Amino acid sequence: MNKLLVSPAPHLHSKDSTRRIMRDVIIALMPAVLVGVYFAGLSALLVIVVSVTGCVLLEHLIVRYLMKKKTTVHDLSAVVTGLILALNLPVSSPWWMVLIGCVAAIGIAKMTFGGLGHNLFNPALVARVFLLISFPVQMTDWSVANSLFRPDRWELPKGLLGAQGQLLDAASGATPLGIIKEGLANGLTMETLSQQHDFSYWHMLFGRIDGSLGEASALAVLLGFAYLLLKKVIKPIIPLSVMVTVVIFSGILWLANPSMNADPLFHLLTGGLLLGAVFMATDYTTSPMSPLGMMIFGIGIGIVTMIIRIWGAYPEGVSFAILFMNALVPLLNKIKPLPYQKEVNRG
Amino acid sequence: MNKTFSIGGIHPQDNKFSGDQPIENFPIPKRVFISMNQHLGMPAVPVVKKGDPVRVGQLIAEPAGFVSAPVHASVSGIVADVASYPDFMGKKVLTVVIDTEGDQWLDDIDWSPEIRHEITDTPQEIFKKISASGIVGLGGAAFPTHVKLTPLEGMKPEYLILNGAECEPYLTSDYRLMLEHGQEVLVGGEMMRRVLGNNVTGIISIEDNKPKAISLMQRLTSNYLQWKVIPLKKRYPQGGEKQLIDAVLGRKVPSFALPISTGAVVQNVGTAFAVYEAVQKNKPLISNVLTVSCTDRSIQKNYRFRTGTPIREILTAAGAMEKDGTLLPQFAKVVNGGPMMGKPVVYLDGPVMKSTSGLLLFTEKETKRKNPGECIRCSKCFQVCPMRLQPYLLYQLALAGRTEELEANRVFDCIECGCCLYSCPAYLPLLDQIRLAKNVSLKNKRKK
């Protein structure tokens, strides 16, 4: 007599799993990864490989030998953290710095809190901010000098090159956000700055190397966003409320004084805003669970980002803004859903 | 765009494999085990004893109160025993065992297939026949039907909704019943409508994965002015009473209130058919239709069975058993009811009941639960919950045994539809814990 399996209803499962979700996030990150590798070549690949391997290995070692449990790396969440960390680093990051980032992400931000599902802050962002404060020089070195795909050796799409055929800002070592921050502080206006530098939205959308590995192309990030929505991995509430808030905030300032403020599209497409809004602010564990909470969370990120960008010490504030709002998530999770029905209205 | 309920819900594959299989009369078993506990409420009290001869349709147990239902013999023969026998869950319940001899029906039962359209009984007579015929809700809950048709102080019924949603995957018994006995279902519904009041509107609601049933019922209702068919967009748990009222009328049943507080009474289409047979044919509820199904094409059937037939006999006839009496090796689980809310079968010799709607067979791969992981706070359980609860929170509170907070978070609103557990990517036993917590809370309340 074969034994009957007995367990309560439901007897079927959607077959959705944590691993499948993480796999979808990895697929969604691929356009950004590929664009980064395309423009920066082997050095970008090196950063990615070191970061992913470091994160996975570290999690395995910590779970297996410190926590003495069965390894959890097969859920792929460490791969996602590794990829996102790599996308947040300059292409020229030295390997030892990337490894320190892995320790900060997996060791400090994730496993110390109890691992997947228990961390308060986004691990990759904790690592990025940790590195930014510890290694300010390396973390803002945007040169691509050690790239195998050096632009002067390879034919590049026309749009990427300036009028004289030079690679835009690649060697200057400054991001558009950095340029306007410094320029405006030195009394220059937006008009003069955009005459001196080419802030073409075309470049921002399709790609140029002016920031971290994953910031090369807004389009690549949006492609990943579309995939995540299609696969129903995330809801659009958080990314959209971040974007809308940034557009409104910068729009008001721009309309008030266009010569001292960049326009909304500039703020939307530059820096890590899209990457942060799509891939980091939507991290399940460190974002609110109710739609209203998600909206407040997104608006908060938008506002804090803009405050830092305009009045703060750093040219870019997305990472700080997300970490700041991460800390508020336990509070935002106190928001109760609307009751199913309070009163019956009979017409 | 067809209507549907407004909050949560999931879209499991419907797998209605047996939809094209006509209802077959299942052979009368040699022995039936008729449980006294086939309805919600007080178990019935047997009025026969060992050795008594009985005929089909004869009363063998009386209701033990208002919320209870009588039980009738489903076969003719000799009462072999009146004692405790295990039901399909292995729980011992008072059971009347009858050894079958022939198929002798009571004289006043009309068992010809001829359809009687004409309703000659008054609403009072209809109500009496329903409560005397042991009719219970055949959608799964088995709540005595006469109780739902009894008027309550201050509540005025406006709508009678016949539930043909059949939102549970695999099950096709209601679908086949509508296709083969649509006219009878409608007459049964009309009789219940008259019991509720003449100005009540009758609605037949069917999910849009059953277009044949929708068009047939639409054609039939064209002769009935107070009836209409409302097709619904396929979605689980649409057949839940509260969800169905929301889908059809856009009204929501408040916590702890009865559905009638929204002016709606919901009855299953199978129940309507049973009412037709009870009133027009004098036939008490002694048989029902069930679906036997699985992904194996050769084991997909719809049977009209006599209550009390052992599950083993049905599965054997359907081809799901080996010659030596064991389950085919590919199957690991037998479910009584639908895959989302049905109960697991523990004891294969246990009987099917009045309200059994399906016997489903699942392989280990299909049904075995994976080991639970960590909650990643994806909020999927919250998104799919049709009662807008926070299953992840209730789960945590249940594990910690925090009863007061569970109640403050409306744990008693949970309809146990299973959407949360179905969707959880970490395979957390959300509903299991919530169900346990509800039971513990209820017990504590009773003690007070």
Describe this structure in words.
The complex is a heterodimer of chains A (347) and B (448). By secondary structure, chain A is mainly α. Chain A folds into two domains: 18-139, no CATH class; 168-332, no CATH class. Helix content of chain A is 57%, strand content 0%. In chain A, α1 (18-40) runs antiparallel to α10, α11 packs antiparallel against α13 and α14 packs antiparallel against α15. Chain A is globular and about 80 Å long. Chain B has four domains: 17-22 and 112-281, NADH-ubiquinone oxidoreductase 51kDa subunit (Rossmann fold, 3-Layer(aba) Sandwich), CATH 3.40.50.11540; 24-100, OB fold (Dihydrolipoamide Acetyltransferase, E2P), CATH 2.40.50; 287-367, Roll (Ubiquitin-like (UB roll)), CATH 3.10.20.600; 380-447, no CATH class. The model of chain B has no long low-confidence stretch (mean pLDDT 93). The chains are: A mainly alpha (347), B alpha/beta (448). At the A-B interface, α1 of A face β15, β16, α8, α12 and α13 of B.
Quick rundown:
By secondary structure, chain A is mainly α. Chain A has helices at residues 18-40, 42-66, 77-87, 95-110, 123-134, 136-139, 176-185, 190-196, 201-206, 218-230, 237-256, 264-269, 273-280, 291-311, 318-332. In chain A, helix 11 (237-256) runs antiparallel to helix 13 (273-280) and helix 11 packs parallel to helix 14.
Looking at how many chains there are and whether they match, the oligomeric state comes to heterodimer
Question: Into how many domains do the coordinates of chain B divide?
Answer: 4
Work out the helicity level of chain B. Answer: 25-40%
Low-confidence stretches of chain B: none
Q: Give the topology string of chain B: H per helix, E per strand.
A: EEEEEEEEHHEHEHEHEHEEHEEEHHHHHH
Count of distinct structural domains of chain A? 2
Biggest sheet of chain A, open or closed, and with what strands and sense?
Answer: none
**Largest interface, chains and sizes:** A-B, 39 and 67 residues
Structural class of chain A: mainly alpha
How much of the sequence lies in strands of chain A comes to under 5%
Helix share of residues of chain A?
55-70%
Report the end-to-end length of chain B measured between terminal Cα atoms. Answer: 49 Å
**How are helices and strands ordered from N to C of chain A?**
HHHHHHHHHHHHHHH
Largest sheet of chain B: 6 strands, mixed
The CATH H-level homologous superfamily of the largest domain in chain B: NADH-ubiquinone oxidoreductase 51kDa subunit
* CATH fold-level topology of the largest domain in chain B: Rossmann fold
Give the strand order, joined by hyphens, for the main sheet of chain B.
1-14-13-17-15-16
Mean pLDDT of chain B: 93
Globally, the shape of chain B reads: globular
Mean pLDDT of chain A: 84
User: What's the shape of chain A?
Assistant: globular
